[in-house]
Amino acid sequence: MSKATVLGDGGWGTALALVLLSNGHDVTLWGRSPEKLENIRNTRENKYLKGVVIPEELKLESDPEKALADTDLVVLAIPSQFQRETLAQFRNILDSGKYPVADAAKGIENGSLKRMSEVFEELFGNTENYVVLSGPSHAEETARGIPTAVVAASRNRMAAGKVRDFFMSETFRVYTADDVTGVELGGALKNVLAIAVGICDGMNFGDNTKAALMTRGIAEMARLGNALGGRKETFAGLSGVGDLIVTCMSRHSRNRFVGESLGRGKTLEEIRSEMGGSVAEGVKTAISAYELARECGVETPLVNAVYNVLYHGLQPEKAVYELMTRSAKQENL
Hints:
Layout: E1 3-7, H1 11-22, E2 26-30, H2 34-43, E3 59-61, H3 64-68, E4 73-76, H4 80-87, E5 101-103, H5 116-124, E6 130-134, H6 139-142, E7 148-153, H7 157-167, E8 172-177, H8 180-202, H9 207-227, H10 238-249, H11 254-263, H12 268-275, H13 281-296, H14 301-311, H15 316-324
Parallel strand pairs: 1-2, 1-4, 2-3, 4-5, 5-6, 7-8
Antiparallel strand pairs: 6-7
């Protein structure tokens, strides 16, 4: 039996902890709030995973040192915009030279415009064992053992293989890759595009519109991702097309929910209030994606439209009109 520690007691962190636990590992789930962990301990349920029973074998810990003691794997399941401040308290405890660190966050930090691997490198220096874990994987389904496939990407093949072996099961299939940048960006950018698809659903458009948005979204994601150092073919894989499909189409998708609510005329403030603490990564990533595209000189009409709807009061109807009446172009993927 190996020991694994999951940092982040939200729905995704809990789901990943349950996968590791079902594989026979000794698993500790860390969260910053002792009160929240005590509630999980008493109810055997995480409020973000209604109906999923949390086994007593899953250890719950709020003390950073105790959580990481003698661990063989660390999994980061902290929302991207909170990852830097959260990991700061592990700066003198987490030793990425001793064990793999699998990061399951999907976003780009506002302000610095850094990917999560770059944030981790700033804090800990050593990224030799850093692995990105991404793909079409809603927590609500993963936690229930519904067949899921993801990708573990690292510049260190052995580290990616170790993460794969920790997680691989009959219901959770893990592929390995070495394009860390591409996998990170696929997981982050698809959240922004899912908001666009949600807006169209909220406006009662049909399948034609969603198919067009998703297809052109893939091209846009690959174009920007390639400019930032990712390989274009990566965006045709699980962390690109795969994650885009599930985030755009699923009833579990928080990003799609945000977009659908915007399409129905709700404000961002109203939507956030309704979500009650749940995080839709695409809302913040839209800012970073928009700014990165401008820095790189890459054309991203869909990202731009989502950004302007979210932060500059552009009405969804106007955004659709502007997208549909752009000058004619040759299709390039």
